[in-house]
Amino acid sequence: MSDGDVAAFTHLGPTVRDALSERGFSTPTAPQRLAIPPLSAGQNTLVIAPTGSGKTETAMLPVFDHLVDGEGPPEGFGALYVTPLRALNRDMLERLEWWGEYLELEVAVRHGDTTQYERGKQAEDPPDVLITTPETLQAMLTGERLREGLRDVSHVVIDEVHELAASKRGAQLAVGVERLRNLAGEIQRIGLSATVGDPAEVGNFLTGGRPCQIREIDVGSNVDVAVRQPEITEEDEQLAGRLMTEPDTASHVRLIRDLVDEHESTLIFVNTRQTAEALGSRFTELELPIGVHHGSLSKEARIDVEDRFKAGELDGLLCTSSMELGIDVGRVDHVIQYKSPRQVTRLLQRIGRAGHRRDEVSSGTIVTTRPDDTFEALAIARRARAGEVEPAAIHEGSLDVVANQIPGIVQSRGSRHASEVYGTIRRAYPFRDLSEERFRNVVSELHRNRIVWFDEGENRIETSGSTWQYVYANLSMIPDEETYEVHDIASSTQIGTLDERFVVNFARPGEVFVQRGEMWRIAEIDDDEARVKVSPIEDPAGEVPSWIGQEIPVPAAVAGEVGEIRGVAATQLEAGADGAAVGRELAGRYPGDEYTLTEACGQLERQVDADAPMPTADRLVLERRGRTVVLNACFGHMANETLGRILSALLGQRAGSSVALETDPYRIELEVPSSIATSDVLEVLTETDPDHVEAIVELGLKRSDALAFRLAQVSGKFGALKRWQGSGRLSNERLLSALEDTPMYEEAIREVFHEDLAVERASSVLEAIQSGDLEVMCHRGRTAIGQGGRSSGKELLAPENADASVIETVRERIQNDRIILLCTHCTEWKSRTKVKRVRDQPECPECGSTRIAALNPWADEVVDAVRAQKKDDEQERMTERAFRSASLVQSHGKRAVIAMAARGVGPHNAAQIINRHREDESEFYRDVLSKEREYARTQSFWD
């Protein structure tokens, strides 16, 4: 052991050093060598190091040392360990219990699921170290006995601090720690994180701008990432048949399977829960030992797969972002990322889960599916190696957090002078610039809503009759959202759920989205029942999903590097090189194999071969076919969304009608009225004042459902609405009008701009276009790159015949449906019965005729028309329909009855189904279902 290795542990007292020897910790890890000295000296410290490198022990060994070798443990809580996830609480308890037992310190957990008995014990006899969540800390600050215990806190450790810094939960926690300081005095603050793009800023967030030591391990230098798009093999062709999918999708599944086989324990990260389920179903079909883990699963299901993976029963775990954080699932030796991780931070968090138990390199593979995906993954992988991480987007001055904290402060401390409350909130870093005027506006709003009492004359804030109830109903800044059930309109089966945010922001009848690996078109939205009725897309190849779930936004820097790659490639392609040669050249600078890079460059080659200009970091390409206009722009999600809104608003204003908008990190796609010329689009880009961007976007937001939804959530935190239960679409306009000049409206606008838009970046793009620094070129018709976003999210879509369970459901429903059988020969016999009771060849018991019409159970007026034989136009149509039905039944028996019992399927459609002569019963029902879905989609035109 070198002197440097020994030095870190020499900062600890003899009791903790004995524990280290007992535990077998002979050599400190890299973060321990760097961080234990300042931590032992009591300094505020931010520790940045890969997951699994011993960050927890790095933080806690000096804390334990202070508690045992100083003056001894206090009567109250000695240290708080705050984690963003309850699952992390469980892991931390398991990791720290041994140390607590050896050092005779009590370590306990407290969160929403902690029993009342345990809570009572903790209040009476506080543990020395308490592991908790940001929300539970809020509750603890209001309890009288718990507040007494909190007076002794000397250390606060915040785990995954980067995750909290970029959220309103973090802004709330920052104020909570300042409230804790009011009780306990100065506290040592310790932050732990795997990746941070701006350590100084996150350090300020942690400490409230006080001095902070930053101890960072270069994460990127310990990461080995390969980007691979699989080549389709003969096995993939066979696998596609077994999985009922396309060969390219089968190749993705096969490559992931092979990578899992090559390693002992693999985490497979995907970007959405839907993708997790779709991929998981493929692995289940192949009977592979790969589990699925995401936030929509029950706690028991998540713990079960975590334990099975840790025990080696599962070779792989398919997971979403929840597994980025340090949940302990044992040793991971490889990480697969399916499709681009979208951000450098995400990649480092995810790949960082592999290795590091013995300071190993973290190895990972990004499996890509199309050119955008590949170039983006290459840029992210290079940036990760170079340590070019995105900064944390701290919520600056969230007024709903201010509204949330004021009642908490007066509930816990009683009547307070407004300046004292203001001072506490201002000490938290996200609120350092909060003006007194804004603060007083928030207090006045809370007073109007009777959440607190504000005595303006005395300048004091006091509790009201509603304060206690408000505080305990609003411990969390995570908004309450209703969940909408998604039902197939034809089979009535539930296919999944959607978050209310997506329904309000995106869902409209006719829109297309992805769920369960399939594409669906919305037929109807029932807000009262919280239900979305949908029909599946029969031919996904021609469809663009309107939305695919909450996409992780691609930053401008990553999109810009994709543009740079295109620019370099274009120069070589225009000089006569082919895609393979360009791919080989890129392979020298980026971590992709030759096949993957050649495949991606094929798109660029097609662009050049068609004499279409190449969209790059310095060039925008405007293309048009018919009413579809695409501005190819490599500026990332948020800047493109902002530019898209400007174009949509100003072009819509010119045309006097709305302009549809779709954006991704590389394209802004508009559906414009035919009166809009390409020159109009160029004019908006070249003549819109960059200083007016914010005002134009805000004007466009003013009547949007998206803003109304945010406003309703924010208003809930001000007590202006009861606990949020849905915006109620009809009231959105009234809601926006009523609250326009309030701090709630100001905060809702700020939140939309912070989370979804990039006003400064969009303004600078317009400035660059107008100064000539950015070139805009036009192209008539669609280009290879312009259409490249249209395949996004469809790689895992199941073909129409994939779900046998839906077909079985349809069969059972139709068999149990009731129909009317009517003899059209004698017209006397009529029977109301279930389809399953109909004979193979129905005949009339009165006259023996086989000319039996099969009619809907509510079609008594048709029976009357047949019997009356009147020549009224309407009755004549009904009679003719009955005779055509009877003719089909006479020729085809029960099969005709089944077809005509389906929803919206009359004799004409039934004849089309029957004339396909399906021998396989499932295929016959699939044809029936297809006609039902066609009816569902066009029903509004017929009703």
TrEMBL record:
One of its GO terms (biological process) is DNA repair. PROSITE patterns: DEAH_ATP_HELICASE, HELICASE_ATP_BIND_1, HELICASE_CTER. InterPro entries: ATP-dep_Helicase, DEAD/DEAH_box_helicase_dom, DNA/RNA_helicase_DEAH_CS, Helicase_ATP-bd, Helicase_C-like, Lhr-like, Lhr-like_DEAD/DEAH_assoc, Lhr_WH_dom. It comes from the Archaea. Residues 36-214 form the Helicase ATP-binding domain. GO terms for molecular function: ATP binding; ATP hydrolysis activity; catalytic activity, acting on DNA; DNA binding; helicase activity. The keyword Lipid metabolism does not apply. Pfam families: DEAD, DEAD_assoc, Helicase_C, WHD_Lhr. Keywords: ATP-binding, DNA damage, DNA repair, DNA-binding, Helicase, Hydrolase, Isomerase, Nucleotide-binding. Residues 255-400 form the Helicase C-terminal domain. The keyword Isomerase applies. CDD domains: DEXHc_LHR-like. Gene3D superfamilies: P-loop containing nucleotide triphosphate hydrolases. Belongs to the Lhr helicase family. Lhr-Core subfamily. This is DEAD/DEAH box helicase. It comes from Natrialba swarupiae. The lineage of its organism: Archaea, Methanobacteriati, Methanobacteriota, Stenosarchaea group, Halobacteria.
